Amino acid sequence: MAPARIEFGTDGWRAIIAEDFTFENVRICAQAVAEYLHERDLASRGLVVGYDTRFASERFAEAVAEVAAANDVPVALCSAPAPTPVVSYSVLDRQAGGAVIITASHNPGEWNGFKYKPEYAGSATPEIVESLEERIRQIQKADGHLKSIRLMEAEKRGLVQRFDPAPPYLAQVERLVDLKRLREAGFTVVADPMHGAGIGYFKRILEGGATRVIEMRNERNPLFPGMHNPEPIARNLGPLSERVLAEHADLGLATDGDSDRIGIVDERGVFVNPLDTYALLLLYLLEVRGQRGPAIRSLTSTAMADRLGRRFDIPIIETPVGFKYIGPKMMELGAIMGGEESGGFGFAGHIPERDAILAGLFALDLLVHRGRPFSAVLDYLVEVAGPSFYDRADVTFDAADRPRILQRVAEANPSEIDGSHVVSVNETDGKKFALDDGTWLLIRFSGTEPLLRIYTETTSQERVSRIIAVGREIAGV
User: Fold this and answer.
1) Do domains 177-385 and 389-475 have the same CATH topology?
2) Are 346 and 323 in contact (CB under 8 A)?
3) Residue 215 vs residues 24, 203, 304: alpha-carbon distances, Å
4) Residues 297-335 pLDDT 10s
5) 342 partner at 20 to 30 Å CA-CA among 105, 200, 232, 257?
6) pLDDT tens by residue, 197-238
7) Any idea which fold 389-475 has?
8) Looking at domain 177-385, which CATH architecture does it have?
């Protein structure tokens, strides 16, 4: 049987458990990481290994630890499931050579994944990914190349040590936001970790004063019942909206399977789409915190950022989708924020990585400073940045149809869409049509799932479905 094709997408390698995501393939990935660390003279600094709440994630993490230890890489192994940003921050706190996190983030429950975070604690750059993938191919070809040691023996020899990554992360959060103010604000917050690694974090951070945190879907369940996948988007957050209304809560905060993506529900039980969330967080940094500097957004994110950039005289930089592009650009330019349409946002002074927990705390701090319901904060955003109407369609397709879809999209050359003229086409990541009224339509394949994604941001709610329909027609799906 031919070896599995292990390729890293926008953030790590993901596959279906027991098909391609096997212990053997996880060990191959771990061997590649160990060799990479030795080549970069980072092995002596050690490897942090974390994992989420998916099926057997701790066992896969232990397999990573066994391989790293056998390759003379000291391992700090998380003692319990932990959010990706918490594990990533541990790299900086421990000055480690990098981290491996066993997680498939927001993918459905039958998936698991392998994320690598280099010494700067963000997503691996395309260059690092290429190096890892080449090593993986070499290891797959070489018999007996894989090293491993039994975990019990590695622990006995001090090569693997278990630790709790939460305390240093929580101390970092306290440096970044005034938690005393949030605890005394008297908010009622409904936290929905979606059965994932974020269980207990908002409650632990925010309680201890007048603020009350109500948790739901807060037990480990790798099946993620009641949802197709643990992604904090509108179709999965009906129960959160209902609970916000039932509890007369000020805000609902949902985190995905590994807590690097945030979903917000306002006091009316209305989902705040991720483009509005990006713009709100950027406005918070600019207006409340008085920060200035570049902001980074993926090409799937909002034009409101560009309008805010012009208003506050800061540059807005567009990248392809994925923090493997956004994070390095944040570091290069000293950006105050980076974000994408998926609900992932990173911030200056922290890690160049998505952090749903910190994003949720910043949203609450914005609420404190504005002194009004979150729906009114959204109204204020429209006053400052102008209106935005957005949607995304996720389309499943037969793998055999991919070449046909690619060809149809590549050949598409419309002069207008829904009555507006096409003024430019961006083919950096998929195909993005920019229209003369500020509307855009993007068609691209997901980098983490077998899906075709069709996005639009436009000038009125009525146009959204029409423009998505044009995208479907162009792709032939």
Assistant:
1) no
2) yes
3) 37, 7, 32
4) 999 999 999 999 999 999 999 999 899 999 999 999 999
5) 200
6) 999 999 999 999 999 999 999 999 999 999 989 999 999 999
7) TATA-Binding Protein (3.30.310)
8) 3-Layer(aba) Sandwich (3.40)
